[in-house]
Design goal:
CATH topology of the largest domain: UDP-N-acetylmuramoyl-L-alanine:D-glutamate ligase
Protein name: Cytidyltransferase
CATH superfamily of the largest domain: Ribokinase
Oligomer: single chain
Structural class: alpha/beta
CATH class of the largest domain: Alpha Beta
Function: Catalyzes the ADP transfer from ATP to D-glycero-beta-D-manno-heptose 1-phosphate, yielding ADP-D-glycero-beta-D-manno-heptose.
Shape: globular
Number of domains: 2
Helix content: 25-40%
GO molecular function: heptose 7-phosphate kinase activity; heptose-1-phosphate adenylyltransferase activity; phosphotransferase activity, alcohol group as acceptor
Keywords: Carbohydrate metabolism, Kinase, Multifunctional enzyme, Transferase
Length: about 500
Amino acid sequence: MDDLYNKIKTIAELGEIAAELKKRKKKIVHCHGVFDLVHPGHIRHLALAKKEGDILVVTVTADKFVKRGPGRPIFNENLRAETLAALGSVDFVGIDHNPTAVDAIKAIKPDVYVKGQEYENKDKDVTGKIFDEEEAVTSVGGKLFFTDDITFSSSKLINEHLEVYPPEIRKYLRNISEKYPINTIVDHLRSMKKLKILVIGDAIIDQYDYCESMGRSLKAHIVVTRHLSAESFAGGVFATANNIAGLCGEVHLVSVLGTKDSHENFVKDHLKPNITTKYFYKDGVPTTIKRRFVDQALNRKMFQICYMNDDPIAKEQESEIARYVEKIVGDFDLVVISDFGHGLLGNILVKTICAKAKFLTINAQTNSANTGFNLITKYPRADYISIDEPEIRLAAHEKHLDLEDVMKKISENHDYNNLTVTRGSNGSIFYSSQKGFHESPALASKVVDAIGAGDAFYAFTAPCVAQGLPQDLTSFIGNAVGALAVQIVCNREPVDVVDLIKYMTRLLK
C-alpha cells in the first residue's frame, strides 16, 4: 500500500517530478479524466498511452468539478486516485482541483497528452474542451495523441448496471434518448445563442450568514449562535438573467434599485458580461436583501431577515418604466418576467408588457412577503408560464382539485398558451392548450440547496418554448437544469450550459 500512496502527488509535485525526469531524458505521457468506474477500456487506454513514452502521469478531476449530475461521481476523488495508482502502467497520479485539464497540462508539461479515439473528431466533443487541451499541450511543447482501441462508456455502464436511477426514471430516460439524440439537443441549445432577451423583474440580493450553535441561553429562552462568515449572491431577477445569459447571446435587464444601499456595484460584478442593464431608482429605500442565517454544520437555514420596502413604485415612475419598455420591446425576441411581488410590476407596466411583447414568459412567485397578493392571474396573457404547485393553486383558489384540472382551469380562464408547474421531488407537468399534458420526473438525487432552482428551470425552459421545442424535450432540459441547480448553494453561480450538456449526455447514454 505504501508504494500505491507514494504514486499519488499534488499537481505542483507532479510538475516538479516531470521536470526532473525530463532532465534525465525521460518522455512524459499524460492522461486526464474522471475515471469514476475503471473498466477494461480504461486499462487498455492507459496501457497504450504508456507505450508513447517512459513515464505515465494520470490526473483525475476532483469531486467538486465532476458535473455529471446528482450521484456522480460514484467513487470519491481519493478512491479514484488509489484505483489508478494500483495499475502497473501508471507511474504517478494527481487529483486536479480545476474544472478542466488545462492547468494540469501546463504544470506537468507532458511530451504527449493522450485522449481516447472518441475525441479524435474534435467537433463531436460537445463540451469543446478538447480544443483548449490541445492548445495547452502545444503551448508547452507537447503533442496530442489519440489511442485507437475498444471503447466503453463509464456513464453507460453505470446507468445500465449500477441502477443509479429507479426503473421508471431509467425507462423515461431511455424513451428520451431514443427520440432525441444528444447532438440534436445540443444543436437546439446552441441555436438559442442568437436570441435577444428582455428580462424584467425585482432586484434581490441574497445573503447567507453561516453560524454554529452555542446552545441555549442561560438568561432567556433563546438559542445562541456564533457568526462565522457571510456570503452574498445576485438573486431575484439577476439570477434569472445570469442563467439566460449562458444560453442566449444578448440579454437586456430592466429593474429597480433602492437609492439607499443600492448594491449596484456588487450586482455589476456578479452579472455575466453579455447582460446590459437599465435601472430605475426608488428613493429612500434599500435594494431588497434577503438575509438567511444558516447552521453551517447541518447546512440548514434557521431564520431569515428581509431588508426591503415592497410598496408599489409611484405611478409616475411606473409610467416612465412602461414608456421605456414600450420603446425597446420590439427589438427583442422574447420577454422574460421574473416577478417576486416586491412592488415593480404594477398594472401599468403589466398592461404595457402584455400588449407589446412578441413572446411573453412569466414567473410570478409567492413568498413570505406577498402570499396571496402576487398571483399569476394579474397577467391577462402569456405565451409561457412557469410556477410551482402552491402558486397555481392559490391563483385558482383550488386547494384539493386534481392538479391537471387546476392547470386546465387557469389556462382556459386566461390567455395562457403553455404552462409548466414544478413540483420539487415530483418533477414537473407541462400543459399546452393545443397538445395537452406531459409529465416528467425529477432527476435530482441529492439536494444541497433548493433556493434558485425554480428560477433556473424557468430561465432555461422559457427560450425552449419560444423556439418551439416539444413539450417532452423542454421538460427534460428543465428538469436536468433543476437537478444541477439544487447542487449549487443559493445563486452562487448560474447553471453552466457546458455542464448541462455533459450531464444530459451521461443521462442519455
